[in-house]
Structure formats: C-alpha cells, structure tokens
C-alpha cells in the first residue's frame, strides 16, 4: 500500500521501497501545472533528484538518486545506527560538550569535585581539631558531594547510553543521600545530647548514628534498583518535538511508564521528607551553644535544597518537547545541584577552616612563649 506523501516526514525509518512508494503517491499543483512521480499518472513531468542524508555533523551526504523514475541508493554511504537500516534522519539533540554552556558547568563540576577531595583530605588530617564537628560524618558528607559532582560530569558528557543513565542516577541518588543523612545524623546527635539531661556522649557513638545513614542508604538503593531494572533497563529514549517534528531529543526513562512515574513521585517525596527532617532538627537545636551546634548553617542548606526541589524538579518536565529543550533540562539539573554542592562546602567548611587556623596559630604562639 503506498505511503501518502504528507505522512512521509513522520516516518522513523525508511527503505528504498517505502521511498519509491511515497514519491509515486505524491501529487501536487506546481508552478507549471500538476506534478506527479507516478508513471501511470495521465500528466507527468519527470525530474532528476539527488537523495541526501545528514550525518552526525549535520553535513549533507549524497546517498542516492531518482533518475528517470528509477531510485538508486548507495547503501555504503547510508548512515547506520545499530543494526537498523537506517534510523531516522532526524538525529537527537544532546546536552553535551559541544555546547558552550555545558563546557562551563562541566568545568565547575570538575573544580567542585577537586575542592571536595581537598576538603576531605584536610578533614582527615585535622580530624583531632574537628572532634566537636564529628569528622566521620563530615568525611561521609564530602564523599556525597564528590559523587554528586561525578554525576554532573557524566551528565555533561552526554547521557547517550543505558550505562551512562544508570551510573549518573546512582551517583546522584547516593551522593544526595550521603549529604542529607549525615546532616541529619550530626544534628540528631546535638539534639539528643542537649535536650535530654540523662543522655551522655558515650550513649550516642558514631556507630549508632551510622545506622541512620544505613537505613537512608538502603531505602535509596532499593528505589534506584527498582527504577533502573525492575521495569526494564533504563535507556535513553528518543522523543520528537511538540511543534517541530524535525527536532528530536532523549530522556533517560524506564521502558515501563509505571516505573517512570514511580521514579518521579517516590524519589522526589523521599528526598523532600529527608530535607524536612534536617530542617526540623536544625530548628529544634537553634538555641544550643554555637560551639557545639551548626543549626543555622544546616537550616540554610536544608532550606536551599527544599526550594530547589520544589522549583526546579517540575521545570525539568514542563520543558516538554520545545526546540532546544535539552539545554533547558540540562540547566534545570546542573544549576540547583552545582549551587547546592558549592554552598554546602562554603557554609559548613569555611568557618571550620578559619577556626582550625586560629587554633593552630594559638598553639604556635604558646610554644614560642615558652
């Protein structure tokens, strides 16, 4: 059955036979009269045409011709993708390192990861001076920040395979869980000690608080595993523009729409609940001596994460299939997480660095005074 010419551009693949059928079905009024490519049409105006396909660099390549009603295709010049012949000539657009804005945020992600690693080394070296700040939990928090930046680096490279989709989600989910759960554990220790006159530090050891981290991490990994594999392996899925069918883009999605919905709702609600718990503990410990308490800094971080979750998460899906939407979706991820990670490091660690330097200076002055 011939393919009507108006539907030809909507095809996701074609063969020489389909192309011939579509051209034979074309009938329209031209400047010089009726135009038809069908050899059985009563009025025929025959022309010769080149058939071109755009490659990945958007350069036109001649792959065949239509001469004297004979279609010829040079298969050696046709762009193959996988085992299909050939895939849609509309290549998906990616937010990758071919865009200037992606290069900028890619550089920020690498720099942020390097700063977090340096702070982790600094925390280990000065762990004795940081005993009041729970260096174990500071180290885990920094590990989470590093993983978030690794996820942002993978997203900047381009999510063009199932492995990249799964790994970027894994590093992001685990990283955010480490950040939020360790903020919650540290604040819970302050709350439990200073609001319970019968409690003592020995009753709230690190291993007890690590159970909170373990529970949060277990719930995160369960959700990540269910979403990534239970409904089929998450893969970059090609979508076409709402108004422009010559615009294609990809989203990392589960083959199952149910599991995709599960990811959107469950993960968002889960992390919002964790952030709210961190903010609540910060509020309950706001009157405790700042020497032992960082409720103000923690509250700022919790408020920032919450606002970003409320504002940017819906924007990611509201972009839809608008042309060049891949950059908007990329920025909806990179902007909040980059700002959040950098702010967390500045708010939590800058006062500690200043405090440790002052303590080291006082020690040096006491030694010199002897």
Termini Cα gap: 100 Å
Approximately how much helix is present in the residues?
55-70%
Helix/strand order: HEEEEEEHHHHEEHHH
Model regions low in confidence, pLDDT < 50 over at least 5 residues: 1-6, 81-87
**Largest sheet features:** 3 strands, antiparallel
Taking Cα atoms only, what radius of gyration do you get, to the nearest Å?
29 Å
Structural class: mainly alpha
Q: Mean pLDDT, as a whole number?
A: 79
Globular, elongated, flat, extended or rod-shaped: what is the shape? elongated
Write the layout of secondary structure elements.
Elements: H1 16-25, E1 27-30, E2 33-36, E3 49-54, E4 60-67, E5 70-73, E6 92-93, H2 100-125, H3 135-157, H4 162-194, H5 206-230, E7 235-240, E8 248-253, H6 257-284, H7 295-318, H8 325-369
Parallel strand pairs: 6-8
Antiparallel strand pairs: 1-2, 3-4, 4-5, 7-8
Helix pairs in contact: 2-3, 2-8, 3-4, 3-8, 4-5, 4-6, 5-6, 6-7, 7-8
């Amino acid at each position: 059955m011939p393919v009507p010419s108006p539907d030809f551009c909507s095809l996701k693949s074609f063969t020489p036979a389909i192309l011939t059928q579509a051209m034979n079905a074309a009938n329209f009024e031209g400047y010089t009269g009726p135009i038809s490519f069908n050899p059985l049409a009563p009025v025929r105006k025959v022309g010769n045409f080149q058939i071109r396909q755009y490659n990945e660099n958007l350069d036109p390549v001649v792959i065949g011709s239509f001469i004297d009603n004979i279609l010829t295709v040079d298969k050696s010049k046709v762009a193959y993708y996988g085992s299909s012949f050939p895939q849609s000539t509309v290549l998906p657009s990616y937010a990758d390192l071919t865009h200037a804005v992606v290069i900028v945020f890619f550089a920020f992600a690498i720099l942020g990861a390097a700063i977090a690693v340096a702070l982790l080394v600094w925390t280990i070296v000065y762990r004795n001076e940081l005993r009041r700040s729970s260096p174990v939990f500071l180290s885990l928090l920094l590990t989470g920040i590093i993983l978030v930046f690794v996820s942002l680096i993978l997203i900047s490279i381009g999510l063009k395979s199932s492995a990249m989709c799964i790994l970027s989600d894994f590093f992001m989910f685990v990283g955010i869980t480490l950040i939020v759960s360790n903020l919650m554990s540290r604040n819970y220790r302050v709350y439990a000690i200073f609001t319970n006159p019968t409690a003592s530090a020995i009753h709230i050891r690190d291993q007890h608080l690590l159970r909170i981290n373990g529970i949060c991490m277990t719930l995160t990994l369960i959700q990540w595993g269910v979403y990534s594999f239970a409904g089929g392996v998450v893969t970059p899925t090609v979508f076409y523009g709402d108004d422009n069918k010559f615009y294609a883009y990809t989203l990392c999605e589960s083959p199952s729409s149910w599991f995709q919905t599960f990811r959107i709702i469950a993960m968002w609600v889960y992390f919002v609940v964790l952030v709210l718990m961190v903010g609540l503990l910060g509020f309950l410990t706001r009157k405790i001596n700042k020497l032992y308490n960082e409720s103000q800094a923690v509250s700022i971080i919790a408020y920032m994460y919450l606002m970003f979750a409320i504002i940017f998460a819906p924007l990611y899906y509201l972009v839809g299939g608008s042309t060049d939407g891949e950059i908007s979706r990329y920025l909806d991820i990179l902007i909040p997480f980059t700002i959040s990670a950098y702010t967390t490091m500045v708010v939590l660690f800058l006062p500690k660095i200043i405090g440790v330097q002052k303590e080291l200076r006082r020690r040096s002055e006491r030694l010199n005074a002897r």
